[in-house]
Model the fold of this input.
Amino acid sequence: MNLLKRITIATSIAAASFTGYVHAQDFQWKEATANGYTYRYVTNDPTAARYYKLKNGLTVILSPTKKDPRIQTYIATKAGSKTDPADHTGLAHYLEHMLFKGTDKFGSKDWAKEKPLLDQIDALYEKYNQTKDEAKRKEIYKEIDKVSGEAAKYAIANEYDKMMSGMGADGTNAFTSFEQTVYTEDIPSNVTDKFLAVQAERFRQPILRLFHTELEAVYEEKNRGLDNDSRKVYEAMFAAIFPNNNYGKQTTIGTVEHLKNPSLKAIREYFNNYYVPNNMGIIMSGDFNPDEMIVKIDKEFSYMKPKEIPAYTVGQEQPITAPITKEVFGPNPENITIGFRFPGATTRDARLLNLIGSMLTNGQAGLIDLDLVKKQKLLAAYAFPYVLKDYSVLFLQGNPTEGQSLDQVKTLLLQEIDKLRKGEFSDDLIQSIVNNERKNIIQNNEKYSSRASTLMDEFTSDIDHKAALEYVEEISKLTKKDIMDFASKYLQDNNYVAIYKRKGEDKNIVKVDKPTITPVSVNRDDQSPFLKKINEMPESAIAPVWLNFDKDIAKNKLGGIDVLSVKNTDNELFRLYYHFDSGKWNNKMLPLAAEYLQYLGTKNKSSETISKEFYKLASSFSVGAGNEETYVTIEGLNENFDKTLALFEDLIKNCEADQAALDSYKARLKKARANAKQNKGSIMAGLRSYAQYGPQNPFNNVLTDAELDALKAEDLIKILHDLFNYKHKVLYYGPKSGSEAVASLTPIHKLPTTLKDMPKSKTFTQVPTDKTKVLFAHYDMVQAEVFWVRNGEQYNATITPTVSLFNNYFGGGMGSIVFQTIRESKALAYSTYSYFSLPSKKEDKDMITAYVGTQADKFNESTTAMNELLTTLPQSQQLFETAKSGLKKSIASERITQDGIIFTYLRAQKLGNSTDIRKNVYDQAPQLSFADINSFHDKEMKGKNFTYCIVASQDKVNEADMKKLGEVKKLNLNEIFGY
Done:
């Protein structure tokens, strides 16, 4: 998994974990026995989590909640990249990939014939690793490729994914980090017997089959990382801040040298050492009876035998006594990241680090929020804690505005740290954080998936659940002096690491070259006896629940506008939206006015004061203007509903022009626009919009540089003051009934007698894909990214069941035809997919897309492979039946709730649908035959024109190769971005 992504996840988990209940509670560990099993629990725990320890040492954490008939599951091992052998880095991550390949019971059509060939491959890899002569290595690899092809004839690729998909599972995946490897599934609650049987078998005796094609997928993942400047920054940071600990000495993906010399023997040894019950946990949250579930888990996993886990020596770090600076180069815009080292997750200081993170950045009233973001001193700035077992880190990151040096950015960030040391922060900041943490605990426990994620992370980090629950009470007792002392101890003016991300060529990149791989068989239509046994296991049906838009939504009036509401019967949270059927297409300045609002105050209150007041109320607002819709979103606690709405109404109706704020905003916007031209994701988004709509498109429908220069504060203020004079709706989800919400809104949200329509200044229409062509944009990168785009026919609701089943079968997951062929069989990409997308409104057209992210030297093979699939749909009756079964079970167990009901209704209205379209899919998709989706494929894809959107280095992808696909048009950045 991407390191930066993992950091984001871990940070959110930490924030969620370290929360108490809404009011001060007495949290105590207790013990109880039910159904013959003893478990521990914490009193007043809102997750109602039970902690079991089975006889073999396996930890089981169960958190029941009945809201949805689904269960989020994690099977976690307390091992990751920090426990990789020093001479085989990346091994834990390799193993994670291989645990999707099956055992001697599934994933093979003839284990007796497959095993001798796998033993040969095992021996060949050991020989390959010990051979230094490159010519001899190539010969050995040829033999590996040959024998692997023979072995693959007996392998059933993705049989694990087929089983999970057939159960109706979502989110089949896994991730590896420093000290955890976690396998994740979201399953319907009626398939737990099947799920546990599959998982118990999965970890019994994993077989390392289809290894060389999966290894190539890891190579692709490594090369993607080489194109990711953020990843390189964090790897440089960890190497500098942890020179003695494995956090810094070893990366999750591993070194190129180790990637090129894998050892199946070492991988198997790693599994035997760390995948033992006393080092693993099963974490589940959702709709189940814990008394029954623990019996089932024990029955399936009791075969596991405990064993002593290899001793891990924590690399002890010496104090940093002088700033350490490093540089990272790459094509993305410049920034600086600063890191301070802290103690590990189980300590009180790690919990206080989380508070420090909130004091610096909380999105509204942190020191960095108010001093650097609100005052627009930097293009972007934030702080966040990353809590790990051995040590933790406080990260600060800043992006410069035009003309700013990275040293100036660093100075501004460190000044905020100095304010913590000196106590130069609001006296009520800690209490405001407490208020928001109390709200966070409610939000975190709304969803079964969030509960499970929190409990899983606590398990792998050895965090005491009781201590986590006591966090709010703990920080509520802290004084300003406590914070000053803590900051002075850990956040000094010389004990940090600073990573300067410079724009320029990275001369240290060592790409993992493409090995020669002969495509292998995937045997789509074969089934192991184990899969058949799983499919034959009984399961009780879950009855689907359809939305009834007339009954599920209360419809009221506030003056002349509609109020659509759904009552929150679970907790005290509310979310209110003012929804406008107008956006950037009506007025290009609307998105700018929406963003400008956050920097404005009123006659009586500064912008900073308003932010503090919202945060103190544990409330927030945002204004987002899309192409054709604008949303004002306000959320918080019901007890502060009137105060929160009144605060926002006062701001938007009485905000005052601030020319200095506009000047700063324009300067930052220009810098952000320049930075977007250096971002490959933004460039690709522009190409795709160009492919859909032509040269003038929604992506480049922005103010020109001249229009931006001419923009006046009064222009934006007028838009804001006038906003509620235009037609809009109120959408409300909260504890009030519809009539109660109207009663509260009436004195606050005052409306004119007549509301205006906002005229459209621009309308964009999808252009016919009348010929095959290539849109190319150069970007200095290792990989090549290719999107296929085709505009189809106008929306037709009757094809929705066919589309849903087709996507499930063809390109929508790890068991799909596209993934199996391009990644599993041919090892051409780490990420690949294809979808038929229905539009968001009935006037628009369908869109067919496909994607391959591949090494540039595989460009021809990858595009050829995808085009073959777009031309001829491979048939697999077994995969087709799995797609049908999974689709039906997924819909049956899906529950659209809360404000999701309102948004589903609005989407249905735009498409001209008066009922829940899912019922059509549920009823009709199971009746479809393969011939039906094959005809659909032929009609929509076979022999059709596509626009290829390609972002790659012009030095690595040959123009002549692109011309084989179609007429090539090289777009410059001004054409793409419109400025």
